[in-house]
Design goal:
- With 191 residues, the protein is of the alpha/beta class.
- It has five helices and eight strands; from the N terminus they run ββαββαβαβαββα.
- The strands form two sheets. Strands 2, 4, 5, 6, 7 and 8 form a six-stranded parallel beta sheet that branches. Strands 1-3 form a two-stranded parallel sheet.
- The longest helix is centred in the C-terminal third of the chain and has 26 residues.
- It is globular, with a radius of gyration of 16 Å.
- The model has no long low-confidence stretch (mean pLDDT 96).
- It binds flavin mononucleotide (FMN).
- Flavin mononucleotide binds next to loops.
């Protein structure tokens, strides 16, 4: 197993909405991931991925997004809750790759205006991620009343989230390491 190469865990900001509170959540999580020793990260803002809406799937791959996902060991998806589901634009972007996701870890941070921390968007996104070949962790981020969680400069107002995200990242990083070992050392035909 490669011990020196850092893990690469990008953070996907899963909405294009003007005024999105999820951007503050994504920047907070990115900062926390980047603090981890041996972990590199970057923000993937789906607003920057220009995809046609006249087609779907791998036919409309964005080469830069595919290369970033291909290089990733794990993903964090920041998923705002829209009518209890995930933004269509997030699904449109995720659908453009397949082999790039296989046997990689993923954790979801749900973001909502209401008090359930995006639990419903998380539940709805899980089967999609499984179908893509990603391995979901059993820990989530839950950001309730997201529009009140940050000040005008995007600074987090409730420090309790630092500890919660620490637990989430511990689990994600463990899973990322285990799956990287598996991808590099364990063949599918091994018994
Ligand atoms: C189309 C739409 C549907 C929404 N549905 C819900 C919902 O079902 N539950 C909820 O708590 N908030 C809902 N919200 C509010 C968002 O969750 C809230 O804006 C939150 O900050 C995350 O989204 P944002 O990053 O776009 O701000 C909805 C917002 C939009 C634009």
């Amino acid at each position: 197993m490669s011990t020196t190469r850092p893990l690469f865990i990008p953070v996907i900001l899963g909405t294009v909405r003007q005024g999105r509170a999820s951007e503050n959540v994504a920047r907070f999580v990115l900062e926390e991931v980047s603090k981890r020793e041996g972990v590199e990260s970057e923000l993937i803002d789906i607003r920057q991925i220009q995809l046609t809406t006249m087609d779907a799937g791998e036919a409309i791959k964005d080469s830069q997004f595919s290369a970033t996902i291909g290089r990733a060991d794990a993903l964090v998806i920041i998923a705002p809750e829209y009518n209890h589901g995930y933004p269509g634009m997030l699904k449109h972007v995720l659908d453009t790759n397949l082999k790039e996701y296989i046997h990689k870890a993923v954790g979801i941070c749900g973001v909502s205006a209401g008090g359930f921390g995006g639990t419903r968007v998380i539940q709805n996104l899980l089967p999609v991620l499984r179908e893509l070949g990603l391995v979901t962790i059993f820990w989530d981020g839950n950001f309730s009343a997201a529009h009140k969680l940050f000040d005008a400069d995007g600074k987090l107002l409730d420090q309790a989230y630092v500890k919660r995200i620490d637990q989430f990242l511990k689990e994600l990083i463990w899973m990322a390491k285990v799956l990287r070992y598996g991808r590099e050392n364990v063949s599918l035909s091994d018994e």
